[in-house]
Amino acid sequence: MNFQSDNQSSIFPEIIEYLNDINKHSAPAYGADEFTLLAKNMLIDMFETDLQVMYVSSGTAANSIALSAISPPYGGILCSDNAHIGGDECGAPEFFTGGSKLIPLPSKDGLMLESEILKYLNSHGLHGIHEILPSAISLTQASELGTVYTPDHIKNITDIAKKHNLYSHMDGARFANACCYLDCKPADISWKSGIDILSLGTTKNGTMSCETILVFNKDIQADFERRQKRAGHLWSKNRYMAAQIIKWIENDRWINAANMANGFASNIKKILNKNKNIIIKYPVEINMVFAQIPITIQEKLKTNHVAFNPWYGDDNLTRFVASWDTKNNEIEKLEEIINNL
User: Fold this and answer.
1) For residues 260 and 250, what is the distance between their CA atoms, to the nearest angstrom?
2) pTM of this prediction?
3) Domains of the chain, with CATH numbers?
4) Who is most buried in 124, 188, 192, 285, counting CB within 10 A?
5) What is the chain's pLDDT, residue by residue, as a tens digit (341 residues)?
6) Distance between first and last Cα of the chain
7) For residue 231, is the peptide bond before it cis, meaning its omega torsion is within 30 degrees of 0?
């Protein structure tokens, strides 16, 4: 029973089959092929707007290259105090931006607070050029604690950003799971809510290795292709990246997969709640469950081959992550183990 990470999940079989099909013939390089065009048009339809697309191999690259387009080396990037870009990117955002400073702000259940953003921005500027220049806000959707920004919450934050001449970035590693939870369209929690640039994650939700940067704001599109090339993410055989997106979107495969993962997480929450010694720490809104579990119970779970991750923060905090390919018998077995504790 593996509940460690959706990064460990398998790939949609349809993607494997499609890659094999398109591998039978050559095609123009560097995105000048029919598959890349089709994938872009499908993304345009999915987000209901024109956009620029960049394919990269990892979420780290997606976030870092995206942020480099909206924050200068002397800029500041406001983010949650538990944002992935701050705790899990090994300094890549600072590296790709040439020195932009990440500014972590206090959050509630992983979500940025308008009050904290305003508090920082309103107290900034007393020292002129001696201070870094606030340049961007980065939201993680869903948050590192599995909570979700609503469209109104996003709009409130991006309105503040616009008022203070900041761009808005979204780290959408689990964007599909957030759409599923909110029962909304992708546009509703991206450009329609004021997001300028989105790191759209697909690897946790069925693809092999395909993260995309979607640029909605035309003011930051001009040199984007050069940023991709300079970062080493200009794919010569781009059709294999685009093919993953085609099959990811096709037949609503992306949202159906996220719905399955979210549903499995909801079941895990119900099962863990059966034990009075286990405390669910944060709202379960996507495919992650954070639970405080006594060490003795953790050891018993491990003995019964239940794999999960310890988590930083409160004592005995753990994280269980469900994936689109989690099996019903894994959930049933977990329930059996919890019932017998």
Assistant:
1) 17
2) 0.95
3) 11-252 (3.40.640.10), 256-339 (3.90.1150.10)
4) 285
5) 899 999 999 999 999 999 999 999 999 998 899 999 999 999 999 999 999 999 999 999 999 999 999 999 999 999 999 999 998 999 999 999 999 999 999 999 999 999 999 999 998 877 888 889 999 999 999 999 999 999 999 999 999 999 999 999 999 999 999 999 999 999 999 999 999 999 999 999 999 989 999 999 999 988 888 888 888 888 899 999 999 999 999 999 999 999 999 999 999 999 999 999 999 999 999 999 999 999 999 999 999 999 999 998 778 999 999 999 999 999 999 999 999 88
6) 17
7) no
**Number of CB atoms found within 10 A of residue 182's CB:** 17
Residue 308 structure tokens:
């999960």
Q: What is the DSSP letter of 204?
A: G
The two structure tokens encoding residue 209: 């290795």
Q: Among all chains, which residue has been given the structure tokens 């964007």?
A: 175
What are the angstrom distances between the C-alpha of 296 and each of 278, 335, 337, 341?
11, 17, 14, 10
Both structure tokens of 126: 């007393």
DSSP letter at 307 equals B
Tokens representing residue 103 in the block: 């500014």
Round to whole Å and give the CA distance between 158 and 137: 8
